[in-house]
From TrEMBL:
Membrane-traversing stretches: none
Lineage: Bacteria, Bacillati, Bacillota, Bacilli, Bacillales
GO biological process: lipid A biosynthetic process
Keyword vocabulary terms for this entry: Hydrolase, Metal-binding
Calcineurin-like phosphoesterase domain boundaries: 48-202
One GO CC term, this protein: membrane
Matching PANTHER family: PHOSPHODIESTERASE YAEI, TRANSMEMBRANE PROTEIN WITH METALLOPHOSPHOESTERASE DOMAIN-RELATED
Source domain of life: Bacteria
A GO MF term: metal ion binding
Official protein name in the record: Metallophosphoesterase
Length: 272
């Protein structure tokens, strides 16, 4: 084989790989999740949550997002809604798309802070998205309720997380929405039944054998998928479940490898 033929073959493989990586980054992969607990009220049996996080620079297509999406009761937005350099008009468009699906509850991520937290908050307020900044609210259905807490993203790693306001009732099913899963580090208890997080992008670029090379040590353990954590100290009856999403957008480069973009539909089920 001549050098020219080898170079042509290598170029073709490279172009194909880049095309595949762009496809993974720009896809609309919905993951159906089911959470079963005897703490879920009967009225919330079958309650459906659209969970999407780390949109970053992407523009939401309402047609693609909803083409295979059955009705949901609410949308949870897990931070990094935008990033520095992205027009706020794009953010308004994305929020409008989500609000036409269901009521939207959000927390901010680190890139939202870099983009200008006051401006981001204003867009959320103007479009009708409920921002939960260390705040707990009640979601009601047929005289029954569950609680939802949103954790405020610290300004930097030097700033600790603060305690969210509001004390959910002990018998209330409690969902915690937090951008960065590092919130659980060194915690003996979560005080929540279901934690939803993003931030990691699942590593975004996952190499064969080497794995996700860009993740820091903590995130190599808490990369993506489902995890079980202690809900209360010494409580073996109720465990907290945490879902870390690979996210919908990308960071730094618009490419993914062995780590496709995703969003989730989580169905709550009352354990018989």
């Amino acid at each position: 084989m001549s050098v020219l033929m080898w170079l042509a073959g290598a170029a073709a493989v490279g172009a194909g790989t880049i095309g595949w990586m762009r496809s993974e980054a720009g896809g609309y992969r919905v993951r159906e999740e089911e959470v079963v607990s005897d703490r879920i009220p009967q009225s919330f049996d079958g309650y459906r949550i659209l969970f999407i996080t780390d949109i970053h620079r992407r523009v939401l297509s309402e047609q693609k997002l909803t083409s295979n999406l059955l009705p949901v009761d609410c949308v949870f937005l897990g931070g990094d809604i935008t990033e520095k350099g992205v027009s706020f008009q794009r953010m308004r468009h994305n929020m409008s798309v989500l609000l036409r699906i269901a009521p939207v509850y959000a927390v901010l991520g680190n890139h939202d802070l870099y983009a200008g937290k006051d401006a981001v908050r204003q867009v959320l307020r103007e479009t009708g998205v409920a921002l939960l900044s260390d705040k707990t609210i009640t979601l009601k259905k047929n005289e029954e309720s569950i609680t939802l807490s949103g954790i405020r993203q610290p300004a930097s790693k030097k700033h600790p997380y603060t305690q969210f306001r509001g004390n959910p009732k002990e018998d209330s099913y409690h969902i915690i929405l937090v951008h960065d899963p590092i919130w659980v580090k060194d915690r003996e208890e979560t005080n929540g039944d279901l934690l939803l997080a993003g931030h990691t992008h699942g590593g975004q670029i996952v190499l064969p054998f080497a794995g996700a090379v860009r993740l820091e040590r903590f995130y190599k353990k808490f990369k993506s998928g489902w995890y079980s954590l202690p809900r209360k100290v010494g409580d073996s009856l109720h465990t907290s479940r945490m879902l870390i999403s690979r996210g919908f957008g990308t960071s730094h480069i618009p490419l993914r490898l062995k780590c496709p973009a995703e969003y989730h539909v989580i169905t709550l089920r009352k354990k018989p």
